[in-house]
Amino acid sequence: MADKDCIFCKIANGEMPSATIYENSDFRVILDVSPASRGHALIIPKEHFKDIFDIDAMTAGKMFSLATEVARAMKSVLKCDGLNIVQNNGIIAGQTVFHLHLHLIPRYEGDGVKLGWEQKESVPTELQELAKQIRKKI
Ligand code: AMP
Ligand code: ZN
Asked: Which of 12, 25, 54, 136 could share a disulfide with 50, CB 3.0–4.6 Å?
């Protein structure tokens, strides 16, 4: 169900212009208007899902499957050296448009794109306990 105030609902459903790479009945793939690097693309479901906690597994699977095809096409055209797939959920995680989307960010030698985090220490027993708790919910 489209949200009338959602910019990605409008873009995905063709009510607002975009640099479209690909479209099918479930998704539109566009170039990001403020790219992190040349060719930065977004895969946007046509249906309004807020985030990863909201989307069904079938659509999410189709989205990642499509990402493999788009990534290969991008690599072929852009001649990038690598590619990051990023998907932000929640303000704290950097989400700014609250309609789920997958970022495909081509990477080039010396591009200066900043992603990543500082790695912290872990305690093996705590990892096992946490893994157990999460496993029970799947
Ligand atoms: P996120 O921060 O993960 O929610 O990503 C939102 C992305 O959407 C950002 O990279 C924006 O540059 C991009 N964006 C916002 N508005 C538009 C638009 N009208 N067309 C294309 N990309 C957009
Ligand atoms: Zn939407």
From this structure: 54
Q: Tell which one of 10, 37, 42 to mutate to probe ligand 1, the residue whose CB is within 8 A of the most ligand atoms.
A: 42
Q: Which amino acid is it at 111?
A: D
> Can you tell me whether residue 127 is helix, strand or coil?
helix
Q: What is the pTM of this model?
A: 0.96
DSSP alpha helices (H): ranges in the chain?
Answer: 7-12, 57-78, 124-135
CA 74, CA 39: separation in Å to the nearest integer? 7
Nearest CA to 8 out of 72, 53, 51 is that of 51
Catalytic residue among 40, 48, 99, 101: 101
CA distance 89 to 98: 8
48 is catalytic: no
